[in-house]
Amino acid sequence: MIITRNKIKNPFRSAKRIFFVLGFLGLSHVSTFAQPVQLSDSLKGVFHQPVQPNWHWDTWATYVYGKSLNVQSLKLGALFGKRFELGVAYNWLSNGVYFDQEWEQNKYRMQYELRYAGVYTEVKFFKQGRWSGTLPIFLGTGKSFYQFRDQSDTRRIVFQNNVVVYEPALRFNYNVANLVQVGAGMGYRFMLKGNSQIQERIVSPNFLLTVGFVPEGWWQLWNKLSNR
Q1: pTM of structure
Q2: Which burial class, exposed, middle or buried, applies to 189 when counting CB atoms under 10 A from its CB (0-12, 13-18, 19+)?
Q3: Which of 11, 188, 208, 216 is the most buried (most CB within 10 A)?
Q4: Could you give the CA distance from residue 113 to residue 133 in angstroms, rounded to a whole number?
Q5: What is d(CA 180, CA 212) in angstroms, rounded to the nearest whole number?
Q6: pLDDT tens track of the chain, all 228 residues?
């Protein structure tokens, strides 16, 4: 079976690789001098700490079958004491990936789709100035399937079935002006339950990029502007 995808080049792919490499080279130096935070200390009494809303937009760059697959993730959660985050997330495959498959004795170019939602947690394990390190974990369920248009130009969805996805990761973050947080890291996607009708399960290491707001910083900026 041969995987192909649309020929439109992703202009952000090179930027992702450069950011990832430079980020980890710099952070390997920073983490040497960072004050580590014990995980037990991070979680101790965390639910008695002040709570803030938080959200992220993550991109998981996955390389399987010699091709690049990009999974986007929108996360909305609650941040407890600036150390522990708990929330919900929705994930979807964002770039076109195609397979040659047979359906009703005809061969079609079908687009592979993967969509899933679930819960996530993040634990901060060190902080040094504007830098921090977190351990994100996601567990969710969804569906994978093929979609295509048949000879009558009717949109078809075939081989649809449930999947269960587990994604642990390691991420380093940088706080920009206490308003925006950007990060880079590595993770792994496990299919705890795959689609038995589809061979491709997208189980692989991932490069992770993230961007999110810092609610406290925006609130302080709002108060400052409104009091002028």
Answers
A1: 0.76
A2: buried
A3: 208
A4: 32
A5: 6
A6: 433 334 434 434 444 454 445 444 454 444 444 445 555 555 666 667 788 888 889 998 887 766 678 899 999 999 888 789 999 999 999 887 888 888 888 888 899 999 999 999 999 888 888 899 999 999 999 999 999 988 888 899 999 999 999 999 999 999 888 788 899 999 999 999 999 888 777 788 889 999 887 767 667 777 777 776
- Give the list of residues 6+ apart from residue 142 with CB closer than 8 angstroms, or none: 91, 114, 115, 116, 117, 118, 162, 163, 165
In Å, how far from its chain's centre is CA 64?
16
Tokens of 119: 């819960």
Which distant-in-sequence residues (6+ apart) come within 8 Å of 115 by Cβ?
90, 91, 92, 93, 142, 143, 144
Neighbours of 53 (CB within 10 A): 11
Q: Structurally, how many domains does the chain consist of?
A: 1
For residue 205, the tally of other CB atoms under 10 A from its CB is 12
How many residues appear in the chain? 228
The residue written with tokens 């399960």 in the block is: 201
Query: In angstroms, rounded to a whole number, what is the distance separating the alpha carbons of residues 63 and 18?
Result: 16
- Domain of residue 34 covers 3-226
Question: How far is residue 158 CA from its own chain's centroid?
Answer: 26
